Amino acid sequence: MRLVLVGPPGAGKGTQAERLAERLDVPHISTGDLFRANLSEETPLGVEARRYMDAGDLVPDSVTVAMVRDRLTEDDAAKGFLLDGFPRTVSQADSLGEILTERGEALDAVVEFQVAEDELVTRLMARGRSDDTEDVIRRRQQVYRDETAPLLDYYRDRLVTVDAVGSVDEVTDRVAEALRAR
Ligand code: ADP
């Protein structure tokens, strides 16, 4: 199974991604986690990414796409994958399309996590990651609306929309059920 998860910051994508990846037996590939790992190891990629992440801006596509392309060449991604946080722009989606075409693969579904915006800010303020200050949160929400939300139309023929308000278990079950019912 080849899946992409899309949803605004705070929608609980990361938590659900881990659980779904386990259920589906595919690797969970999170660009946010990959960037944070590079940041903490102070790799050149991490140093480059830091200033964008700290501002709530997107890391440039050239850097992000190369990182994902690399990750997808690892053995565990041969059987499928669950992408979390990528693609985040139409241009990244075009690049992913090219990467998959080269591999003779295609996405099975794109899962959208739906949560009202008020609920999102409350959740993120409670999480307390270093880039979870109010200004940066607002900036990330705006980037989502401007850059990422257009993907919902881009992927309309493969889109599976799930109400992401509820307990963690409830939401996981909803996604699994929506994927089965597709
Ligand atoms: P959130 O879902 O809360 O926005 P992530 O962990 O997915 O957090 O991402 C954190 C930061 O990493 C983003 O604000 C951005 O700077 C960077 N990032 C993650 N994925 C991408 C991507 N696909 N393209 C560009 N930047 C990204």
Strand-residue proportion: 5-15%
Q: What ligands does this structure carry?
A: adenosine-5'-diphosphate
Terminus-to-terminus distance = 13 Å
Secondary structure tally, helices: 9
Shape: globular
Please tell me about this protein's structure:
The chain has 182 residues and is α/β, with parallel strands linked by helices. It is built from 9 helices and 5 strands. It has helices at 13-24, 31-40, 44-55, 61-72, 90-103, 117-127, 134-148, 150-154, 168-181, and strands at 2-6, 28-30, 81-84, 109-114, 159-163. The protein has a 5-stranded parallel sheet, sandwiched between helices. The protein is globular. The relative contact order is 0.21.
How would you concisely characterize the structure shown here?
The chain is of the alpha/beta class. It contains nine helices and five strands, in the order E-H-E-H-H-H-E-H-E-H-H-H-E-H. Strands 2-3-1-4-5 form a five-stranded parallel β-sheet, with helices on both faces.
Give the topology, please:
Elements: E1 2-6, H1 13-24, E2 28-30, H2 31-40, H3 44-55, H4 61-72, E3 81-84, H5 90-103, E4 109-114, H6 117-127, H7 134-148, H8 150-154, E5 159-163, H9 168-181
Parallel strand pairs: 1-3, 1-4, 2-3, 4-5
Helix pairs in contact: 1-9, 2-3, 4-5, 6-7
Adenosine-5'-diphosphate is lined by residues 9, 31-32, 35, 52-53, 56-59, 64, 85-86, 88, 92, 140.
